[in-house]
Amino acid sequence: MSSNIPLLDLNAQNDPLLPELRAAFDCVATSCHFILGPEVDAFEKECAKYIGSKHAVGVSSGTDALLLCMMALGIGPGDEVITSPFSFFATAGCIARVGATPVFVDIDPVTYNLDPKLVDRAVTTKTKAIMPVHLFGQSANMGALCELPSTRRIPMVEDAAQAIGAVSRVGNVGTIGTFGCFSFFPSKNLGAFDDAGLVTTNDDALAEKLRVMRAHGSKPKYFHAMIGGNFRIDALQAAILRVKLPHLDSWTKAREKNAALYNELFAKAGLPSEKLGLPKKVETRHVYNQYVIRTKRRDDLRKHLTAAGIGTEIYYPKCLHLQECFASLGYKDGSLPHAEAAAQEVLALPIFAELGEARIGRVVDEVSAFLKAS
């Protein structure tokens, strides 16, 4: 029997770097500088250069990046934030945690990202921010979102948790809106050894506000002009990420190559589009945090792949607007049909950089054989 193919193999990425990672750990351990400090300062500068932003502020997680931005913008009860219903829970959860109301609009069924036309219609006098999600590693249509007359004076918080290194037709992800929010959860293209995150901005005053608010709003120490939280990135995680960051472009290029091979082999398999939908690259650079196919036989296909030893995941099986905790918002089945259809049909296949042609070929063979037989 062929060996199993995991959805993600972190050992394949980390093992070649173990000497450098251990050295980074030893450096932090012997310095005893565990909270902020020189490793964090250096990592922030290196990330800002990589992303192309003026400022980068390290925080404790991608979730806390979003939450900190909501707090820095002063968003609270009575305010609305427009966002996607097809995303990880933190996208909407952070809006609700500050007492504001998430306003969900439907997605573009090709990219799974916000439909700008629907965003335009959803703007009201209560709209205090727009939170586009760059899902699966491809930028939302930031050009169209920024050009809408209704959005020009509204802060835009880019949820770029899955999209470090992605590029839209109008610039690098994380540099276009008021803020860019990134996650370094271990499964991300650039992954830490724990939770960690980053906020980018080109605004000097907002960058300073973020830095103060991530440390309980304290400046100087023990004096609080504002209320913040404990949102500081660990020095150890910053050191680990500094080891990994120089490799990110090569890992991303490998993911892009893997995606291109998937597309080529699926095309050769000759499956009609009504049986199998493939991810479409629409913006300038898709970094493929996930490679997501689409089929109406998703659940049966997943069972087949699991039996064949191939790892998969469903991102995401239930849309945010239909989650029980948001029932009071009044959304019903059918409210946002494109998002709801995607939740029933999408399936992520292995795409990690070290996957290799042979394993991609085996995944394609198993998917194709199942769908042809069905």
How would you describe this structure to a colleague?
The chain is α/β, with parallel strands linked by helices and 374 residues long. The chain has 2 domains: 10-247, 3-Layer(aba) Sandwich (Aspartate Aminotransferase, domain 2); 248-373, Aspartate Aminotransferase, domain 1. The chain contains 13 helices and 11 strands. Strands 1-9-8-5 form a 4-stranded mixed beta sheet, sandwiched between helices. A hairpin with a 2-residue loop joins strand 6 (167-168) and strand 7. Helix 4 crosses helix 8 (204-213). The longest helix has 22 residues, at 248-269. The mean pLDDT is 97.
In short:
This protein is α/β, with parallel strands linked by helices.
